[in-house]
Structure formats: C-alpha cells, structure tokens
Amino acid sequence: MIRIVLADDEPLIIKGLRKLIDWEAFGTQIVGQAYDGNELMELIEEHRPEIVFSDISMPHRTGIDILKELKSKEIATKIIFITAYQEFSYARDAVAYGAVDYLVKPVVKQQLENVLAKAISLITEQHEQTIRKSKLQHLERKSKSDELQEWLLGLIDGTLPANPDACRQLEEELRGPLLSAVIVETDHITESPDRWKEKERRLIAFAIGNILQELVVASGNGQVMHKNGKYIIVMNHEEVHTSVNIAQDIRDKINAFLKLSVSIGIGQPVKLITELEYSGKQAEQALQLKYFNGLNRIHLFKPLESKPPFDKELYALQMAVVSGLTVNQWPEAETAMNKLLETIRTAAYGNRTLAVSTCFSSILFIIQELTKSGMTLAAESVDLHDLQNRLGAYETFEEMKEETVRAIEQIFSMQEVDSGNKDKVLMAKVKQYIDEHYAEELTLESVAGLAFINPYYFSSFFKKHTKQNFKQYVTEVRMKHAVRLLIHTDQMVYEIAEKVGYNNARHFSDMFKKQYGQLPHDFRQERKKQE
Description:
The structure is a single chain. The chain has 531 residues and is α/β, with parallel strands linked by helices. The chain has helices at 11-20, 37-47, 63-72, 88-97, 109-157, 164-173, 198-217, 242-258, 276-288, 290-293, 311-326, 330-347, 352-372, 384-393, 397-413, 419-437, 444-450, 455-466, 470-488, 493-499, 505-516, 520-530; strands at residues 2-7, 28-34, 51-55, 78-83, 101-104, 178-186, 222-227, 230-237, 262-266, 298-300. The protein has 4 domains: 2-128, Rossmann fold; 174-300, 2-Layer Sandwich (Alpha-Beta Plaits), CATH 3.30.70; 305-415, no CATH class; 418-531, Arc Repressor Mutant, subunit A. A 5-stranded parallel beta sheet has the order 2-1-3-4-5, with helices on both faces. It has a 5-stranded mixed beta sheet with strand order 7-8-6-9-10, sandwiched between helices. 28% of the residues are buried.
C-alpha cells in the first residue's frame, strides 16, 4: 500500500478529503494528518509517506519550506499542494520547486483522482527505474567478478596469456602481501557419484558456496571459484598461518551446518600474483594427501622426500605372506600382509596410483607363488578385474588396505585343500553377511564381489549349497525379519518394509502375501487374535 499524509490547518478540509474518494481503491492508505508545517514535517520523517496532500500556506512552514527541507534530507516524498484561488501563482512556483501538482479549493473529486493517479504513476516509474538500475549494477558487478575469477583460474592453471592489465586489476583486488591457493573438496561426493542425486548435489554446492562467500569474499579474505566439483580459493593475508585458520573455520562450519566431511589442500604462500600457479599446483598436491592421511583434514603442502628403492623389502614381505599361506597359518600371513601394506603406504606416499598398482601386483604375485608351491586355487572364483577396479575406487589408503587383506584371506579360504570344508566356511560367511545386511540393497553381483567370486560361478555355488537361488534366499531372510517386527513391534507396515530392505511398501506387501498367503496387516491382526 502507498502511504499518504493529509495536511491542512482547517480540520474540515482534511475530513472532506478523507471522504471525497475511495483511497483504498487506488492502493493507498492514509497514515496520518497534520495541522501545521512543523507537525507535517514530523509525520513525514516518522512515516516516510510516498505522497503528501498539503495546504500550501501552512502555519510555521510554507509549502516551499517543506519542499526545500525534503530535498536537503533526500526524502523522496511526492508533494501535492492544495491552494486557494488567490494563491494560484504561488502554487505554480511550488511546482517549479518540485511539487508534483496542485489542486485549487474547493477540491473536485475528479481532479483529486487524476492528480493522485499521476503521483502513483510517477512513484511506479521511479520504482521500476530503481529496479532496472539495481539489476544493471548487479550484472556489472557480476561481470567484473566473473572476469576476475576467470583470470585467477587462468593464473593458477598457467593458461592466462601475458596480460598486464589483468594482473594490475588482480593485484588491486588481492592486496596481499601474501597470496595462497586453497582447494576445498567434499569427501565421498566426488568418489561416489551415484550416492547423491543431481538436485542434492546442486543444493550442497549452493550451501558450500554460501559458506565460502561469507568466510572468504565478504570478509575480504580473497576470491572463490568453482571448477570440476572443487572450490578453488585465492586468499590474501598478512600472516602465514592465516590461510590455515580460515581453512579450519571453513571445515568446521561445513561439518557443523551441512554434516559433510571436507578435505582442504593449501599451497605455500607467494608474494607475486604471477606466482599463484606454483601455489595452485602445491594445493592440488596437498589435497591428494587425503588418500594417505585421512579425510576431513587440512593438508599443507610439503615437498616429498625422495625414497630409496624398496623392491627387496617388498619381495621379502610378499614371500612372508606366501609362507604363512602355504603352511595354512592365516594369523602369520595376516601379520606379514599388514607389514607389507604399511611398507607400500610409506614408499608410495603422495602417489595414489602407485599405491593401488603395487597392492594389486602384490596380490597377483602371491597367487602366482602359491600356485608354484603346488597349491591348487579355484582361480575361476576370483574376479581379478573386478578386484582391481574396487581397489582403485576407494577414497583412502586405509579402505584399500582393508580390501586387500580381505582379498588375500578370501584367496586363502578358496584353496582346494579339503574343499568341502572350505566351501562350508565360505558359505557360512556369505549367509552371515546376508543376515547382517538384509536391510540394504543386496544383489548377486555385489555379494559375489565381496566373496571375490565371479557372479556366474557364485550363482551355481550358492544354489548348490542352499538348494535355492540367491534372490529367493534373500527374500526368505527379509520376510523372517518382517514377521518378527510385525509380531513384536507396533511399527507401521511401510516402516517395516524399509527396515527389511524394501523402498516400496506395496512391493513388500505383495512379496509378503506371496510368502505367507496374507497381507502384512492381516497377518498381524490374526496373530493378535491368536494371542
């Protein structure tokens, strides 16, 4: 609603103006009335009305006085004067000073409506101009910001051509005296793209961007860019430790507000804008250390020390593993395997690809040596290609280490020595895994992968030992747990469906009826009657 103040030293005039037209029909509201110039000025400062209808010859302050004071205080209120016929020339002068228009007493309804519409039109036009100007200024700022960020990314990537003007503008924006490249990456999201839907990823990016804008840009600590799922920050600071403090604040706020784990790599500070490329490469190298050091940490760049060859030590530990397996002593083999993996971690520190390839080649070497020793392994049950892919997919060395130990243990359990007992042990482990993870998504391929057996072989193996196929067995396990929940809890059917591994309650009910001949609700009611 547009706010209006009426002013006249004659109360009867104000009363008449109130009743003359339907003010609300014009989208306006009368918020006050004054009887002299001083009172009018007080009301204007208090309510900041868009429009004032005032007698031009008010006591204490004239119309011209009011106009001058509004102009000096930069108050944009529109003034429409009401004047007697003998003050006609004075009213015209007031228009020249900035009044919207004037009305001659007695005020006629049509003239009042016309001049009110004129004032509203002016207000609307000015409002639209302000919006357009604001949008234009925003676009100009955004364009400049985008250009600066593009230049910064070019500097960090080493792809910005010689551009003295760009460097000068960046130096004005980032005054230093120290500049550091910082890279922020959310853990798990980039490594597991299937875990997050596109909408969730956009919301996460938006939320993280807001946190970085607050802690870096709005605080005058630098600029933030987003590229390939990572947030690249150029910080300007005076103290060496400042970049670490801000990085810790970033991590803590993302942990607290978004409940996400985040890793941050920080390059060494430089003094020249043209040296940012070096700090950027260092930040990227530092971020890669999360694979070895762990997630949700701040990783500072440090030059990696050159390491002596470790081939002899590697071979000795691999053979120690083989020795433990050949004499059927898993504890000894496991101890040697852990020593082997820690040696690989130390030797390959900073080089994820080397760590993964060395672990996988060690598994191949152990298999080959076991075969040479006379052991017969069920080679067709081990999907080495799948194992290699899984080793490379883990986000940390620790996860990859655990998978490597499991692989060796599985190979040991698949030796065809007393194969009947070995099969029983493996089958018991598979059943245990299903019973512990029935609420999760279980597929023949995923469980076969955990057992290091190719799916085709695993399907036959499973049916041979259970007399039913994998899917039937999993369904039976889930239904037994569903029965337990139906009988012993008051949980809703859809809640039970989720807890036993079904996202669709209707599908769960259909499967339950197929298994027990009744829908879950009917089954529960009948059991209650029996009790």
